[in-house]
UniProtKB/TrEMBL annotation:
Residues 19-70 form the DNA/RNA-binding protein Alba-like domain. Gene3D superfamilies: Alba-like domain. Residues 1-20 are annotated as: Disordered. This is DNA/RNA-binding protein Alba-like domain-containing protein. Pfam families: Alba. It comes from the Eukaryota.
Length: 128
């Protein structure tokens, strides 16, 4: 491969990753990812949620919340198995992987406007 095609491939990989959310079931709360997905959808037509192992249930839950509230339509679901190096055991461990591609629904912008307006009106100042 030439240097130019390597750079093109790397640029394409970076573009793909701009709308990908890699979910962990230990790092952030569920609604952090739901809100992050909404923010990504404001900038992109579609997003990709991905997770390994035990975080798969979290990704499915995020996708279902977004779908059930009318923000997205499900575009595709891909499952696979990936080998990861377990340094402690000194061997390769195979983990389940899921990628769910969601596209912005026709109602997305109006739902976001309603949500943002409700949040603005719902702010209550602290009384001391």
């Amino acid at each position: 491969m030439t240097m130019a095609s390597n750079e093109t491939k790397q640029a394409n990989n970076e573009n793909v990753k701009k709308n990908r959310i890699q979910v962990s079931n230990t790092k952030k709360p569920l609604f952090f990812y739901v809100n992050l997905a909404k923010r990504y959808l404001q900038q992109h037509k579609e997003i990709e949620l991905s997770a390994l192992g035990m975080a798969i249930t979290t990704v499915v839950t995020i996708a279902e919340i977004l779908k059930n509230n009318g923000f997205v339509n499900e575009k595709s679901i891909l499952t696979s198995t990936v080998g990861t190096k377990d340094v402690a055991k000194g061997r390769t461990v195979h983990k389940a992987r899921i990628e769910i591609v969601l596209e912005k629904s026709d109602k997305f912008d109006s739902l976001m406007a309603t949500t943002q307006q409700a949040n603005a009106n719902g702010k209550v100042e602290k009384k001391e």
